[in-house]
Amino acid sequence: MSTPSRPAAPDPLDFLAVDASLSAEEAAVRDTVREFGRRELLPHVAEWFEAGTLPDPRGLARQFGRLGLLGMHLQGYGCAGASAVCYGLACRELEAVDSGLRSFVSVQGSLAMTAIHRYGSAEQKEEWLPRMAAGEAIGCFALTEPDAGSDPGSMRTRARRDGTDWVLDGAKLWITNGSVADVAVVWARTDEGVRGFVVPTDTPGFTATVIHRKLSLRASVTSALSFDGVRLPEAARLPLAEGLGAPLSCLNEARFGIVWGAAGAARACYEAALAYTASREQFGRPVAAFQLTQRKLADMVVDVNQAALTALHLGRLKDAGACHHQQVSFGKLANVAAARRVAAAARSLHGANGITLDYPVLRHLLNLETVATYEGTEEIHALSIGRAVTGISAFR
After folding, report:
1. Residue 194 is assigned to a structural domain of this protein
2. What CATH number is given to the structural domain containing 171?
3. What are 38-41's contacts with CB under 8 Å, separation 24+?
4. Is 50 among the residues known to form the active site?
5. Does the pLDDT of residue 1 top 60, yes or no?
6. Its family (predicted)?
7. Taking 80 as the threshold, does the pLDDT of residue 2 lie above it?
């Protein structure tokens, strides 16, 4: 009788062998984006974060376009037509570098491009999507307002008919890429309900102002938008977007990317903590040799691998056409919370060094404060899950 072979010891960097189930195509996407991020982005991102900006967003957009990352889950118009899992892996590897970089890709592809692809006219798609996929045009998605964050239904931005045109008035806030965008997908209240408009940013009356003094998501351009009598032709309206469900469906696409991105940020913080505690010595021993350190590392391993499993499972469901938006809320709530725990523990394990930009952990921890808020706060996602399991809405 032969002796059963003994399973290999777990890989400390993929403890549950989550990536072992990836297809060759999926692994290739992971490796391509990871290598690009480590070669082209990671050496500079701390400097960008400290400066509070992206110095060359158009150059970055073109780089992302050449990699096929912009609108990569969409079909046609120069988009890659990749699977949900491939898109998720790209988001994971980008956010392992910095949340702001994943946000750039997410806003372009999951929000602005998805809105045009899903709800736009043939002319709108042909005009914008190929250029946006190539990174030759940058888009933004204007839904959030100064007094309408978690409750977008209370938006005050209005579009009124004036002959055959529309006239847009109002303001939007916390708009990623707003001041570098060539086109804005703007959501406004009309007499017929909420409608979406494709607005070239050089239209008279459109103003974008960069938001400064951010303490989070600093390697990203965030803007306030204002619309003062912005006149648009009927052709600017997204013809298939009727009601608030249209922008919310786009937000769900972005949330899916966050599920994966948060897993990437968590992994990056865990890897940094593991390497640091193995090399840092105190009391004549590596910090990793102490029981309290190993307990923290063990908790981080659990969070990192559960987040990776959650992301992959939702990706498989999405590729099968079986992922409900409330399941995406589960993933966003769970994975962002896990990433925040991991980042906080990693910061503590780095000691005083953890507060510097020489290490990635506090940068990730600060970024995750924004990730926890945008595309639905943790409270909103908790209530979404609560409604799913009770059948009772607590929103109103």
Report:
1. yes
2. 2.40.110.10
3. 38/97, 41/94, 41/97, 41/98, 41/101
4. no
5. no
6. Belongs to the acyl-CoA dehydrogenase family.
7. no
